[in-house]
Each structure stands twice: as structure tokens, then as C-alpha cells.
Specification:
With 138 residues, the chain is an all-alpha fold. Helix content is 83%, strand content 0%. Helix 1 runs antiparallel to helix 2, helix 1 runs antiparallel to helix 4 and helix 3 packs antiparallel against helix 4. The longest helix has 49 residues. The protein is elongated, with a radius of gyration of 21 Å.
């Protein structure tokens, strides 16, 4: 009876560990997919700017803003370094700034101020680079 109870307990612990690992992997895979989508969005915005396609730029902004929920949520903690206490707050601030600059870009595009829109793109790129340098230790 004792062996059976020990075996069942061990099985339950191992099953829970596997479930926890799957959640960990799931969070990471979703966040990494969103990071790739952010890269695609930035490329689309840049391509639109280079070819004077405001529709491509706006589509890129929409794609970018659709992924910011990942950075704004607690889920981002799954990919941040555990040894950097400021990482979560920094990611939150970066997401906020990405939303601000991308919204301003659409406003600039609608007003026909392409110089301002491209400056907003530059600020978006700086936010991405800053986060990758600080959090990923480049």
C-alpha cells in the first residue's frame, strides 16, 4: 500500500512538472512569435516609408500595436532574465513608448507630415534597440 501511494504521489508530481514545463514553453513560444511579428511590422513600416506607401506604413503600425499586448502583460516575465530586477519595468516602459510613437506616426501620416512619421519610425527603432541592448545584454 505504501509503495502504491508513493508511486501515485511521484506520478502526480511528475505530471504537474510536465504541465508546468508546457506552460513555460507555451508562454515563451507565443512571446517569441510576437517578437518576430514586431520585426515584420518594423520592416513593413520601413518599406512603406521608402516607397511612399502610407497604407503599408499604417498596416505595419497596426501589426506592431497588435503585438504590444505581450509586452504589456505579465506574460513577458517568461522571457526576461531573472537576474535583472528592472527588466519587467523596462519592458513595460518600452511597450508604452512603442505604442506612443506608433500612434503618433499614424497621426503624422494622416496629416501628411512624412518627415515626422519617419522620425517616429526612428524612435520606434531606438526603443527596440534599447530594449535588446539592455535586456538581452548585447
Amino acid at each position: 500500500m505504501k509503495k502504491l501511494l508513493t508511486t501515485l504521489t511521484l506520478s502526480a508530481v511528475l505530471a504537474m512538472s510536465a504541465i508546468g514545463a508546457d506552460k513555460n514553453t507555451d508562454h515563451r513560444s507565443v512571446l517569441m512569435r510576437d517578437m518576430r511579428t514586431m520585426l515584420d511590422a518594423m520592416e513593413q513600416i520601413q518599406r512603406g516609408g521608402l516607397y511612399s506607401s502610407t497604407e503599408d506604413m499604417k498596416a505595419g503600425v497596426k501589426k506592431l500595436q497588435g503585438t504590444l499586448k505581450s509586452l504589456e502583460s505579465d506574460d513577458v516575465k517568461w522571457i526576461l532574465p531573472k537576474d535583472q530586477k528592472y527588466a519587467y519595468q523596462f519592458a513595460q516602459k518600452t511597450a508604452s513608448m512603442l505604442r506612443l510613437y506608433s500612434s503618433d506616426m499614424v497621426t503624422s501620416i494622416d496629416a501628411g507630415r512624412m518627415d515626422d512619421a519617419l522620425e517616429d519610425y526612428n524612435q520606434l527603432l531606438k526603443q527596440c534597440t534599447s530594449c535588446h541592448i539592455r535586456i538581452r545584454n548585447w
